[in-house]
Amino acid sequence: MTETNEQQQQQQQEHCDPFSNCDFDFCGKGRKDVDDSIAPVDSNSRYGTSADEADLKVQTVVTNEPESTDDLEEATSTVASVSVAGKSYQEDETVESAAKNTDAYSQSQDTYDEQEEPMKEGKSNLRRNRIIIVICLIVFIAIVIVGAALAPRGAKKDTTASLSEISDGKNDASDGPTVPPVEVLSPEGKVDQLIRLEAIFGGEEFNDKDSYQKKALDWVISDSIVQRRSLADTPSNVRWTDEQIVQRYALASFYYSTYSVPHNYTEEFFGGDVKPWVNNSNWMERDSECEWFGIDCDDDGHVTGINMHDNHLSGSLPREITLMKLLELLDVPNNGLYNSGEDGNDWLGDMAEMKYLSFAENYFDYYGIPTTFSKLTNLRELDCSYTLYYGPLKEEVFQGLDELEYVVLSGNQYDGPLPTSLLTLPALENLYASHTSVTGSLDFLTDLKGKIAPLTEFWLDENSIEGSIPVAIGSMEGLLSFSAAYNQLSGPIPTELGQLTDMKQIWLYNNDLTGTVPTELSSLTKLEMFLAMNNTLTGSVPDGMCGIESLEDDWFVVDCGLDVNVIVAEEIVLFRISNNKN
């Protein structure tokens, strides 16, 4: 029984670390209670190290302080081997001797930690310094790249040599180290490259040698002025900028596209063969295009206006006009221009700075009005009258055009009513929509009361407008001229019309108006013209509208069956109410 207990105690002791404080029950007895009667293991035991040798190695570790990492590793290995041998050592010696060896190992480990700490700190500092250097290099490279990207074009060194530099031998080896050869562009090549980069259709337009774009490109390239002023060694104050070269190309495109170019309507417009411009003074000849007929420029030489009304323009208005980024005025009415469909009209909305746009009395063919016009947020005047526009008037066309003051839609074939977005424009003063086949009524004067545009002239004659004249017309205080002739208006002339004391012109003829001429119209003392013939009006002219006898007959027209002997107010020049009932 005693032998069995001793074997169990030995097995438990083998599972216990001799260098730890094994005071728990798993180890059998506490360190101080180890049985001294356990027989020592001989030197040939399976642990391979005697107790004396283990003790000697531990003492060596304690007395010899490690001088390097290799010494430290050897010491650690020694202690590890001692740890393995400790199991037999514990059986041979007392636990107190093993504790001494543990203290020695701890002291050796503390010495190692004291030497290792500066080494770790040095490595940490080195790694931190390397990181800082890498970050600085990255920041420096980023600054160089951003600086190069933001550098002005004028400051960038031209890597191509001009013709004069080549002929003078300025690019010889004596100027510096040899560099790989670069492509040298002549002035013609530079101009060609620049224009092709800006080409509206990506350069494909130049494949047709008969296209107006190819003619314009060839002219700009061959222009001796452009060649001379695009040389790198030309003084900057006279050298053409890229914008000026492109601007010259745009105007050359305008010339070749509209000068004696026939189309389907040229015979109708000219009454025969196509004709040249009436005036082409200085075009394609003088130094500056600002001196060409019909061209306006600002102080910096940028084209801001094209005035070509009644000048026998033919062909089509070219899209290259949009290359002139500061163009504010395009005035080409009463010519023989033909622009058809989306390709010929939508681009008109791409002229961002446009303020005054008129292409009236030309052959512009489009279904409705291009909705791209809504992008012309600087537009103040629009005249697209007497073209070939037809179809609906969409709300989107006029949305956001808050600067628009003057609109002429007359002479086209629209269908439907006037869009609310047009009638409520905050700056609109003049709206002319005569002979446009507009339908609907004048009820919008009531519906939009308080929101209606501040109109001074409002013409709606020769349309298909029905219903009566709303009394709300009396709230349009700034109205000076109103025309609704040749419609299907019915009912009486509203007395509220007499509230418009600044009114000068009223056209109401050729309708179905009934009743009498209101006496309230006697207060329209600034009235110059009142035409109400061909209605079913009855009665006589109010006494207050008669009193001026000094007006000359040339300015006084009375042709009616009513009892009218004299004219109305002091400034009246025409008063006609003929063909009404007595």
Describe the structure.
The chain has helices at residues 2-14, 51-63, 69-92, 95-150, 163-167, 187-198, 212-222, 224-229, 242-258, 266-270, 341-345, 420-423, 444-447, and strands spanning 295-297, 303-307, 329-331, 338-340, 356-358, 363-367, 381-383, 388-392, 406-408, 413-415, 430-432, 439-441, 457-459, 464-467, 481-483, 488-492, 505-507, 512-515, 529-531, 536-537, 574-576. It is of the alpha/beta class and 582 residues long. The strands form 3 sheets. The protein has a 12-stranded mixed β-sheet with strand order 1-2-3-5-7-9-11-13-15-17-19-21, with no helix packed on it. A 5-stranded parallel β-sheet has the order 12-14-16-18-20, with no helix packed on it. Strand 1 (295-297) and strand 2 form a beta hairpin. The radius of gyration is 51 Å and the shape is extended. Mean pLDDT is 77; it is low at 12-69, 75-95, 153-174 and 548-574.
